[in-house]
Amino acid sequence: MGGAAVDADTESSTLLLPQTTPTKAPKDSFHLAYTVYFTLGAGYLLPWNAFITAVDYFAYLYPSASVDRVFALVYMIVGLICLLFIVSFAHKSHSYVRINVGLALFVVSLLVVPVMDVAWIKGRVGLYGGFYVSVAAVGLSGIADGLVQGGIIGSAGELPERYMQAVVAGTAASGVLVSLLRILTKAVYPQDAHGLRRSANLYFIVSIVVMVICIVLYNVAHRLPIIKYYNDLKREAVNEDKEEKGAPTRALLKSTLWDIVGTVKWYGLGILVIYVVTLCIFPGYITEDVHSQILKDWYPILLITGYNVFDLVGKSLTSLYLLENAKVAIGASFARLLFLPLFLACLHGPQFFRTEIPVTVLTCLLGLTNGYLTSVLMIMAPKTVQLQHAEIAGIVIVLFLVVGLAIGSIVSWFWVI
Fold first, then answer.
1. In terms of C-beta density within 10 A (0-12 exposed, 13-18 middle, 19 or more buried), how is residue 289 classed?
2. What CATH number did the domain enclosing 399 receive?
3. How far is it, in rounded angstroms, from Cα 200 to Cα 212?
4. Cis omega (within 30 of 0) on the bond before 283?
5. Which CA distances in Å does 382 have to 45, 180, 269, 368, 388?
6. How far is CA 200 from CA 50, 165, 171, 173, 399, in A?
């Protein structure tokens, strides 16, 4: 796998380099840059996974609230608004600053729940003021996600393909990590107020530790030779643009942005459809709408874990085989709409479809296709534009992704009724 990685770096570098530059990209020694981007991918999605995986805790404290769907709606809408601002004003800010601010906001949002639990809630049921504070923390985390995700995906888009694959695989790994923590805590801790509090606090503490690691890794990553190499390439490309076209005017920046959107729009629409379908079903449908007499309250936990594991498998498969036909990848993204009638049949169809096996198989396939197609489209999209525009292309793709998440979160309230 190491040899394949080096070949991928070399091949990608020839695509990104100006035609007059014969310099070969340095090797990623010990896969350090890959590890950094994998960890950052896991990091920026871990806060969301922590909030949504602590559903037992929140459902116990606030029994009349639809916690999953409220959290998802707030997180996605706030993240979307934040990304719209970033796309509009990316040329006036530096991704280094945005990412560091976002990582710090993640830490603050993750501290809210355990601090509030110790100082105020203390396991008492029905204090809905705590629910509103938790929702505000989710919103703050959504702002942080917009800042961090846009910046990380954008910077990965300026590097060879394997680093984008590292980021998207990291996002799936965060889901697997939290799911395993949830299984562990459910098996070890009693499912009473004390046990649920300890479980939830563990999710948030682990997430905080990972975010601190992300802050450290991100702030040393720019010293790695391969990162410096591509940063220098970008600066050269930007300087050449300025020499040819002069200082960018507002009209030119707007025109360039729309050109980028036009170039990557079909990749973005594919990703949008992927996440509309996924969020219609996961996690709300799985945690609230299907039930098992055999597995009881373990059922949603095992389904979520199955989804996350196969999402990671799908996002890892692109390191072995990358589908290079964009039309096929985009068509497959639209074909995932078939999951909606299939999952609907698991609620209202024949008795066989309502049993554990069909639901489990469909959930794993949902995760596998989500992971693989997301990885393919995220890798391909930034490579369709010039190097100096790859960051903006990455942010635009994230914008499509978050729009899909937001639409899916809204539709999830209605489609199974």
1. middle
2. 1.20.1250.20
3. 19
4. yes
5. 21, 33, 14, 23, 10
6. 8, 30, 20, 19, 30
Please name which of 226, 230, 178 lies closest in space to residue 205, comparing C-alpha atoms.
178
Residue 239 lies in a domain: no
Q: Tell me how far apart the alpha carbons of residues 87 and 95 are, in angstroms, rounded to a whole number.
A: 12
In whole angstroms, give the CA distance from residue 182 to residue 195: 12
Q: Based on the structure, what is the number of domains in the chain?
A: 1
The four Cα atoms 97, 99, 105, 111 give a dihedral, to 10 degrees, of -130
Percent of the chain clearing pLDDT 90 (strictly above): 40
pTM for the predicted model, two decimal places: 0.85
- Summarised one tens digit per residue, pLDDT across range 371-384 is 999 999 999 999 89
CB within 8 Å of 194: residues ≥ 6 apart: 123
Which amino acid is located at 280 in the chain? C
Write out the two tokens for 198. 């300890």
- Say which residues have a Cβ less than 8 Å from residue 225's Cβ, sequence separation at least 6: 26, 29
Largest CA distance in the chain: 69
Question: CA 306, CA 312: separation in Å to the nearest integer?
Answer: 10
Measure the CA–CA gap between 84 and 100, rounded to whole angstroms: 19
Rounded CA-CA distance 188/170 in Å is 27
Q: Is the pLDDT of residue 285 over 60?
A: yes
In a domain, 12, yes or no: no
Angstrom distance (rounded) from CA 193 to CA 170: 32
- The token pair that represents 276 in the structure block: 């509309």
Cβ–Cβ < 8 Å for 384, 267: yes
The answer as to whether 23 is a domain residue is: no
How remote is the C-alpha of 192 from its chain's centroid? 32
Q: Which residue has the higher pLDDT, 346 or 331?
A: 331
Give the side-chain half-sphere CA count within 13 A for 143.
13
User: pLDDT (tens digit, 9 = 90+) per residue, 80-127?
Assistant: 888 888 877 766 677 888 999 999 999 999 999 999 999 998 878 888
Distance CA 42, CA 168 (A): 8
CB atoms within 10 A of CB 225: 13
Q: Is residue 230 part of a domain?
A: no
Range of the domain at 323: 31-225+249-411
d(CA 356, CA 296): 11
Nearest to 204 by CA among 138, 279, 139, 143: 138
At residue 16, the pLDDT reads 46
